[in-house]
Amino acid sequence: HSAIELEDVAKDYLSHGEVVQAVKGVTLDIAEGEFFSLLGPSGCGKTTTMRMIAGFEAPSKGLVRLRGQDVTNVPPNKRDVNMVFQSYALFPHMSVWDNVAFGLKQRKTPQEEIRRRVGEMLEIVALAGREKRRPREMSGGQQQRVALARALVNRPRALLLDEPLGALDLKLRQAMQIELKRIQREVGITFVYVTHDQNEALTMSDRIAVMNDGLVEQLGGPREIYERPATAFVAGFIGTSNLLTGAATGGALKIGGGRVMVPGRDGDVTVTVRPEKITIGTDEPEPGMSAVRGTVAEVAYLGTYNSYAVSLADGAEITVFQQNAHDATATAERGDSVWLSWQERHSY
Ligand code: ADP
Ligand code: MG
User: Which structural domain range is residue 45 located in?
Assistant: First the structure.
């Protein structure tokens, strides 16, 4: 059985006499042991979807199944899933140890087993030796690991994490992303992870559901979603992309004093190209390449790469990223007339 299945799940809220369709019909199938992310902008329905998996909200329609069992009307405490929130919700007056042991004590787990399981879990989240600390004596990242240990010590079949790293600064967040992925591999349970941060989702996930306005726009692995965005929304939301539109004839879109290869497509087309797939230069590219002419409008030095904004004759603007070699100077400067080229397989 799948760990978690949503079948056409929707949620309407009544807010000041008006119906808000928070989730409009989501179907998902999450495998046992998978690191699965719900990714999308604020307000697209991620948290609501998560709360329906956990049982904190009842769907307006559709079914929720855990390991093949219909739990649509089963309360949260009977679902064998645990949820970790952005606000860690630790007990401030309790030590790290007592915070993690809390759930086991409540369920009258034998002392010896509590000692063993809490000890193991603190080891896994790299907090062994910090048992006596209080939450306020710890950094944000450490507190988040305590919250994680507290959720995992109950050995839920699935862990739901709603923007758990949102309160941390960038450096710590990146470190915790790697840490979380390691922990998930180590404990081997299903993680469902909510984030609005595309890098976070790409870094950690086995699969990602990109959500927009209450619906899943695309479901796939990180590479698939990045390289083959299914919709203009996904292309725009994940990474930077260039959208070129126009009328294609004879398998090419004629723009910017050049051509974009679109074999087999005629009529109105929209083509997406990632900035890092484009080469910038002064020589005319070989036939068979997609190639357009333009003028460099801006150059930005961004450390590992340069970003160029290039204006085409017909007004379109294309962004190009070019990796910096160790002794690099910019290949083109503002005002230069340049060719942009890329292989046909890099536009879609
Ligand atoms: P996300 O987590 O992706 O930011 P949410 O699931 O929290 O999105 O919210 C989706 C939509 O539903 C938003 O428009 C939000 O305002 C609305 N919403 C969420 N919870 C409630 C609620 N309890 N009552 C009314 N509207 C809500
Ligand atoms: Mg949310």
Answer: 4-235
Q: Do 183 and 67 share a domain, yes or no? A: yes
3 CB contacts (<8 Å, ≥6 apart)? Answer: 30, 31, 32, 33, 34, 66, 67, 157, 158, 190
- Atom index in ligand 1 nearest the CA of residue 40 equals 3
Q: What is the pLDDT of residues 279-322, one digit of tens each?
A: 999 988 998 899 999 999 999 988 888 899 999 988 889 999 99
Whether residue 50 has its Cβ less than 6 Å from ligand 1: no
How far, in Å, from the CA of 46 to the mean position of ligand 1?
A: 8
Residues 270 and 297 in one domain: yes
Question: How far, in Å, from the CA of 274 to the mean position of ligand 2?
Answer: 28
| Residues of the chain falling short of pLDDT 50 | none
How far is the centre of ligand 1, averaged over its atoms, from the C-alpha of 293 (Å)? 45
Number of domains in the chain: 2
User: What ipTM goes with this model?
Assistant: 0.99
With a 6 Å cutoff on the Cβ, whether 22 touches ligand 1 is yes
Q: Are residues 141 and 207 in the same domain?
A: yes
pTM: 0.83
Q: Are residues 64 and 201 in the same domain?
A: yes
Q: In what order do the strands lie in the sheet with 69-70?
A: 18-30, 4-15, 61-66, 69-70
Q: Same domain for 146 and 42?
A: yes
